[in-house]
Amino acid sequence: MPAYVRYSIKCRLDPVSSGIYRSALDTIWRALLGEEQSSEAIKAMEAECLNSIPSEDDWLRVGEPYSEDAGAAAVFAIRTLLTCDPNVAIWAAQRVIDAVDDFVARVENQKSDLGSSMLSSQALIEKELAFQVWIVKQLEDSLDSVNWKAALNKLRERAQDHTSSVFEIDMNE
């Protein structure tokens, strides 16, 4: 969500609009942890989040291309909660991979030494893929666990840390 937060700051969105995706993700986590959520409220949240995804013109204007991916990934996460369809969860993960891939392509286009850029770029992509594999493993391991809520809380904390650093890699290595 950092890309959307930067976008919202640059566009001077109000605090509620700025926090729409963080609020949606918090709602999803609470639902996963057993807090009852009405399907009507989640559907309304999905519609609100869908309408808040920055258009290409908007993110181009402020230079935050990944804000659209962040919004779309959040909407797919909400839809996953509503439908329990694993394919929708894959679409959410794919938006993150697409954003990382685009980021790598942009950095590589700015580099004159393509060889060193390729190594750093590969490390960034591997970091994201490894994180997504870790998530699936954590979920699988917690399915039959007595402490599944603790496992989900750990996953939530790690995901929040990860999203704030996904694009933090030294591309000059």
Describe the SSE topology.
Layout (H helix, E strand, L loop, with lengths): L1 H9 L4 H4 L1 H13 L6 H14 L3 H7 L3 H18 L2 H25 L3 H29 L5 H18 L8
Helix pairs in contact: 1-6, 3-4, 3-6, 4-6, 6-7, 7-8, 8-9
Structure write-up:
The protein is mainly α and 173 residues long. It has a single domain, classed as Up-down Bundle (YP_001051499.1 fold like). It is 79% helix and 0% strand. The protein contains 9 helices and no strands. The radius of gyration is 17 Å and the shape is globular. The model is unreliable at 169-173 (pLDDT under 50).
CATH architectural type: Up-down Bundle
CATH fold-level topology: YP_001051499.1 fold like
Unreliable segments (pLDDT under 50, ≥5 consecutive)? Answer: 169-173
Sheet-strand content, in percent, reads under 5%
What distance lies between the first and last C-alpha atoms, to the nearest angstrom?
26 Å
Secondary structure tally, helices: 9
Features:
single chain, 173 residues, mainly alpha, YP_001051499.1 fold like, 0% strand, disordered C terminus
What's the short version?
79% of the residues lie in helices and 0% in strands.
